[in-house]
Amino acid sequence: MLNTGDRLVESDRGLLTTVGCRITGQPPTYALEGSIAVTGGLVQWLRDNITLVGSAPEIETLARTVEDNGGCYFVPAFSGLFAPHWRSDARGVIAGLTAYTTKGHLARAVLEATAWQTREVVEAMNADAGVELRSLRVDGGMTANNLLMQFLADVLDVPVVRPIVAETVSLGAAYAAGLGVSFWPDVEALRANWHKAAEWLPSMDAATRQRGYRKWRKAVARTMDWVDDDD
Predict the structure, then answer these.
(1) What is the mean pLDDT of residues 40-62?
(2) Contacts 24+ apart (CB under 8 A), 188-194
């Protein structure tokens, strides 16, 4: 999500325009939202449906057994592609398989799918808002995966920051309630509560980044036009 302040930005690139919040006596704050269909759910799918790992945290250990994805890309369009494509006819693909591919490469491709999908959304946000992303603040369970966080910083070419309280949705609800009953005097008091727990800086060279993104987009193109009228 990208906070656009009191400016309601209509997306031309497949994003959603939503209300971020509204504090009593103040105008609404709007945001651009990029809805991605499958991120952490792909790790669960690998665990429960394919049983390649016994628990979600094991995927990082498995992915670290290889240096890179070995040319393997996983586009999890299980129910179509969401932002920024919006293609209900798409279905998931694993592209670039060779005899060299191992389960470590598959695990790495699963993690990298979240980062590449995020890059697609960030590019759309940069263009819609006319503001370049300078850093990405992350939250949720997947932020515990250090390999993914580093790769995310690499493909976005910006710092990725994890706060001490990683459950931002729950924290936001508590903050809204606290403001409503005057437990906190204003939003400035809330900003003072925010603290950084970890930060990842980009270390990937530009040529590698662009080659990987080009391959990702080729894999995405292969997911489309899969569903037929008689399916």
Answers:
(1) 95
(2) 194/163
